[in-house]
Write a structure and sequence with these properties.
This is GIY-YIG domain-containing protein. By secondary structure, the chain is an alpha+beta fold. It has one domain. It has 8 helices and 4 strands. It has a 4-stranded antiparallel beta sheet. The protein is globular and about 50 Å long. The protein binds a DNA duplex through helix 2 and helix 3.
DNA sequence: GGGCAACCAAGTTACACGCG
DNA sequence: CGCGTGTAACTTGGTTGCCC
């Protein structure tokens, strides 16, 4: 099966990447003082699920940034939005309206524990007033607890910001390759995977915390580019 | 069945603060 | 000052749904 083989190759390449960067990181241990590449692609893994025929951790989300013309956001800018606030008013929390990943994880927590009454505005709108943010703080903290403990890898891809960037290409194809959406599952997620409670069918069925590209075909050639980019990456 | 508003996904920016 | 950070709000592109 061709897809199975390409997935194996992807994981193998990511093992290479892991050696190159000196191991997976967790957001709880990260700061902006670390030597992040300016621009890149990130891969989050589940801490407690493994691939079917291997002891490798399963990938759970792929993302990137600087996909619009002229963008100046860095890889770390994006990662810290997922991590959330370390101190200040929303200490230990974060802003799920600036990070879809946070939004989706929180939403799944809400669904799983039937907390819709407590969090009627979760994910609604692109901003919220202080009072509402404080009402949502406890859930933001749960989300932070979850996200900050996910091991992740990052790939240095430092081309110009644009929708056609190599970052966007690698992200899109990795998602399309790994997605189990409307396909025979490869490395099916565990029954207790939080994403099974997502409101999004694409998340539930793809097995990834991604919505875009889960229903697309992938271009096997992207793995060659990935291999080349791994050479461009170094440790933090 | 084209136009348009509403909405959504995901990332982006602006600006103030604190600290070495 | 420069950098990392906190916080609020925006942009772009895509989809949906309605209404003539």
């Amino acid at each position: 099966m061709e897809r199975q083989r390409d997935i194996d190759r992807l994981y193998h390449l990511l093992e290479k990447l892991e050696e190159t960067v000196g191991g997976k990181q967790k957001l709880k241990d990260c700061t902006g003082y670390m030597d992040w590449p300016d621009r890149g692609v990130y891969f989050f893994f589940t801490p407690d699920e493994h691939r079917d025929a291997d002891d490798q951790l399963r990938i759970t989300r792929i993302g990137t940034h600087a996909v619009s013309e002229g963008s100046s956001t860095s890889l770390w800018d994006r990662l810290r939005t997922h991590r959330g606030a370390k101190r200040g008013t929303y200490e230990g929390g974060g802003n799920h309206r600036g990070s879809v990943f946070r939004k989706r994880v929180g939403e799944a927590f809400v669904e799983r524990a039937s907390l819709n009454d407590e969090y009627p505005h979760w994910g609604k709108g692109s901003s919220a007033k202080r009072e509402r943010r404080l009402d949502e703080l406890e859930m933001e903290r749960r989300v932070s607890g979850y996200l900050r403990d996910l091991p992740f890898l990052w790939l240095n891809v430092d081309d110009e910001p644009s929708a056609e960037s190599q970052r966007a290409y690698i992200e899109r194809n990795t998602i399309a390759l790994l997605s189990n959406y409307q396909r025979e599952a490869v490395d099916a997620r565990a029954d207790n995977w939080l994403g099974n409670h997502s409101r999004s069918k694409k998340i539930r069925e793809s097995g990834l915390w991604n919505v875009n590209h889960v229903d697309e075909d992938y271009d096997p050639d992207f793995l060659d580019l990935l291999r080349d980019q791994i050479e461009e990456t170094s440790s933090v």
